[in-house]
């Protein structure tokens, strides 16, 4: 199975689809529109077929048709980004800022033997 998932926009009135992530060989997914519709946030992995590649937050500017990776310097994988359940906590009113959360996987503690 090909792991190069992409993010597309489809006009509501019909017409041609547009791939927003054709430049990335890895998987992209989980698109979420900003409250004003100017931006689309989504997650991106760069290494094709590598499930453990970290997920980065990307903001797509719909007017400029550009993608900007916001979390490249993070050493952890993105866990959540702006979406239906997190919109109020993640998108600022001006939509120029979005917050994201990351978590580090911690192995379960070994049980002590008595």
Brief synopsis:
The protein contains one helix and eight strands. With 114 residues, the chain is mainly beta.
Which key features would you list for this structure?
114 residues; single chain; 4-stranded antiparallel sheet; mainly beta; two-stranded antiparallel ribbon; 4% helix
Gyration radius (Cα, Å) is 17 Å
Using DSSP, what is the number of strands? 8
Q: Tell the overall outline.
A: globular
Average pLDDT, rounded to a whole number, is 78
Note down, in words, how this protein is organized:
This protein has 114 residues and is mostly beta strands. The chain has one domain. It is 4% helix and 27% strand. The strands form three sheets. The chain has a four-stranded antiparallel β-sheet with strand order 3-4-5-6, with no helix packed on it. A two-stranded antiparallel ribbon has the order 1-2. The chain has a two-stranded antiparallel ribbon with strand order 7-8. The longest helix is centred in the C-terminal third of the chain and has 4 residues. The C terminus is likely disordered.
């Amino acid at each position: 199975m090909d792991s190069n998932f992409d993010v597309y926009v489809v006009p509501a009135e019909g017409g041609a689809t547009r791939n927003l992530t054709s430049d990335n060989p890895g998987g992209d997914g989980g698109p979420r529109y900003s409250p004003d519709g100017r931006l689309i946030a989504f997650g991106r992995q760069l290494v094709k077929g590598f499930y453990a590649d970290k997920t980065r937050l990307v903001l797509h500017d719909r007017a400029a048709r550009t993608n900007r990776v916001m979390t490249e310097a993070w050493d952890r994988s993105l866990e959540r980004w702006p979406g239906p359940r997190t919109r109020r906590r993640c998108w600022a009113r001006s939509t120029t800022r979005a917050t994201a959360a990351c978590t580090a996987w911690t192995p379960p503690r070994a049980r002590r033997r008595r």
